[in-house]
User: Fold this.
Amino acid sequence: MSNTAYATPASINGVDVATLFATLDAVKGQNEIAKFQFRAENTWQTGTHSRSRIHGFYGAGQELTHTHETVLDADHPVVLTGADHAPTPVEYLLHALAACLTAGIANIASARGVKLTKVTSTVEGDIDLLGILGLSDGSVRNGYQGIRVEFDIEGDADDETLRGIVEQSRRRSAVYDVLTNPTPVSVSVVTG
Amino acid sequence: MSNTAYATPASINGVDVATLFATLDAVKGQNEIAKFQFRAENTWQTGTHSRSRIHGFYGAGQELTHTHETVLDADHPVVLTGADHAPTPVEYLLHALAACLTAGIANIASARGVKLTKVTSTVEGDIDLLGILGLSDGSVRNGYQGIRVEFDIEGDADDETLRGIVEQSRRRSAVYDVLTNPTPVSVSVVTG
Assistant:
C-alpha cells in the first residue's frame, strides 16, 4: 500500500482502500474466512403481507450481527388483490441488483483511484403475470422476462475508465450472478 | 363464486377471494392486463452505501403508484469494509424469496378454503466471497452457492394439504423462478 510516495489515499469515495486491500490480503492467506451465510426470518402478517427481520449472519469465521436489525415488509398492490403495505417481493430484487452493482462500482473505482461524484441507476423489470396466475400454456415464465439497469455515472476519469468500472462490477456482482444464472433453492416444510 | 349456498367465503386469511377469482377471470378475458413493469431508482450515498426508491409501476394497462413510496438502503457490513447502514444486497434476495412464497401460500390456501394460523420461514444463503473478491480460479461463483427455505405452517388442514399449498406456491413463485432459472439482465451506462 505504501511502497511509493504516491500511494493510493487511505480513503476515497468513502471506501477505506487500505482496509479493502488488507481484507483481500487476509482472505488470500486464509480462504476459509471468505465463507459467509446470510439469513432472513419471515413472518406472514395477513393476506399477501409478510415481514422479514434481518440481523445475524456468519462470516470471517464467526457469528456476527449487523449494527441494527432491519425489518422489511412486502405485500402485493391493490390491483393484485393485496393491501399495498409495502413493495412487492419482485421489486426487492431490483433494489438488490442496483445496490450490489453500485457497491461494486464504489469499491472498484476506489481501488483504481477514481473519485466518483455521482452514481445513479434506474432498474426496470418486465413480468407477465399469466405465468404466476397459472393462465399460461407454459410458454410464459413466472419471473421477470428481462431486467434492464441503466447507470448514470460521473467522476474524475474518462468515459472508457468509468464504463470499465461498471463492467468490472457487473462481472463480480453476487446479485447479478444469482439473477442471470441458476441458483439451487431448497424449500422444506414443517407443519404444526 | 356463488353458485351454491356453500360458496367460498368472500375473505379468508385476509385475502379477498371473490376479488382474487374476479381478477383471474378478468385476466383470462384480456391477457394484456397481465403485463407488468416494476422499477427501482437507486442513488449511491458513499462507500458501499446506496439507497433505492420504489414507487411507480406499470400494470393492468396503466401507470400506477404504490400507496406510498418506499426507501430502501443497502450497505456492506464492517467486516466487508462497509459502514453497515443497512442489510447487504444479497440479504434482500432472501427477503424477496420468503415474501414471494408466503404471499403465494396465503393466496393459494385462501382459494382452497384453508384457514392459516401461522406461516413463518427461515431463509439461509451460503456464499463464498472468493468469487466476488476475484480470488477464485473461476471455480467459485459470485453469488449464492445454495439457498434453503424452511417453512413452519399451521392451519385447519392436514399435513398433506398444507405441504401441497407450499409446493404450489413454489411452482408459481416469481422470485423462486428468477433465482433458480436464468433471467436476462442488461446493464447500460451513461457517463457525465
User: Anything to note?
Assistant: Confidence is low (pLDDT under 50) at residues 1-6 of chain A. The first strand of chain A starts at residue 11 and ends at 12. Chain A touches chain B through 134 residues (CB under 8 Å).
